[in-house]
Amino acid sequence: MIQLTSEKIEPEKIIAECLSSAAGAVLLFLGTTRQFTAGRETSFLRYEAYESMASSEMTKLEAEARRRWSLCGCAIVHRLGEVPLGEASVAIVVASPHRSAAFAAGEWLINTLKERVPIWKEEHWADGTCEWIHPDNAPGTVVE
Amino acid sequence: MKVTVKLFATARETLGTNEIEIAVTDPATVGALRVAIAERYPQLSSLVERSLFAIDANYARDEDPLADATEVACILPVSGG
After folding, report:
1. Cβ–Cβ contact A138 with B under 8 A
2. Which of A40, A75, B39, B81 could disulfide-link A93, Cβ–Cβ 3.0 to 4.6 Å?
3. A104-124: pLDDT as tens digits
4. What domains can be seen in chain A, in order of their start residue?
């Protein structure tokens, strides 16, 4: 299940999409808006996406995770627009028969999403300034 | 050839538009487009040098041709999550 949404993320609904009697482990990851980064205060975040490509890249991530691990459920949801402090910008749910696959797939999915999916974060600082975040590390390499 | 390029985040705000039309010399490849944007918009050159480009919503390589592209996008370093 892949979704881009401007609404508040509701983890219980995403978990419900992934539950089944095949699962012995269900893992939820939420990425949330942090108030302080290196001592600097954030007031909120805003996210923008190249929506058609973000959806297709997230779909590829789900397919790749399902190939690499034995999963019986997988959902990736990213919020766009304004995300207030403490609320989730991204939710990943992974269900598998055994927990090791769920932990591994969940970590791989969030790490790879942050490298590959064309979504950008704008920090709105508490001092009234704002800036788009474009990390210095090399962007995602081209994937076959 | 002329190529229309979709812009996002800093590139969109700096140039004040969602897309630009830019002339690329033959052979028109992603790499030639990168050079053309950096030359025409020096204020974006350092970001564009470390950006990827997408052709029809798939990541492309610098040697990939633009001739058959329907939609080209400049993918600045991403920061989702």
Report:
1. yes
2. A75
3. 999 999 999 999 999 999 999
4. 2-132 (3.90.1170.40)
